[in-house]
Amino acid sequence: MDDGAADLGDLLMRVARTQRRRFREVLEPWDLSPHQARALMVITGHDGVRLSDLAERLRIAPRSATEVADALQERGLVERSPDPADRRAVLLRPTDGGRRVRDEIAAARAADAAELYGRLSPDDRATLARILRSLAD
By 3-state DSSP, what share of the chain in percent is helix, strand and coil, each rounded to 5? Predict the structure, then answer.
């Protein structure tokens, strides 16, 4: 018996694609990729992040994390500094400009999410959040 699970999966994937497209569009004013924006969020959320930790948190290869960090550093959004606990390691830290861009992106994403999910009633948003949390666990 088909209970519509496949249709639900298709709908969920369609919404995920819509969300990814909208995220790319939100990032256009800063000329950042989604990986770069996510990396900036991780780096600004901690007091020093090793490249290996960044790769793990973003679920990308260490080489890709290096490329993302390089791009953020070239834009002046992050800086590298020696890790006081291990002089061979390097920590990524946000610059003031990186924190400002992170805040601007967060505000733009919040506005976009309010527009997208504002199509739903508050009760529907709460139900959707509950359902998605149960599927994500």
Answer: 70, 10, 20
61-77 pLDDT, tens digit per residue, is 999 999 999 999 999 99
Whether 1 has a pLDDT exceeding 50, the answer reads no
Going from the N-terminus, what domains does the chain have, and what CATH number goes with each?
26-136 (1.10.10.10)
Average pLDDT over residues 37-45: 96
Element (H, E) at 118: none
- Return the half-sphere exposure (C-beta side, CA atoms, 13 A cut-off) of residue 11: 6
Provide the 8-state DSSP code for 59.
Answer: T
Would the CA dihedral through 46, 50, 54, 56 be positive or negative? negative
- Give me the torsion for CA of 116, 121, 125, 128, rounded to 10°: -100
Q: What's the CA gap between 118 and 136, in Å, rounded?
A: 22
Q: What are phi and psi of 50, to 5 degrees?
A: -75, 155
CA distance 16 to 69: 26
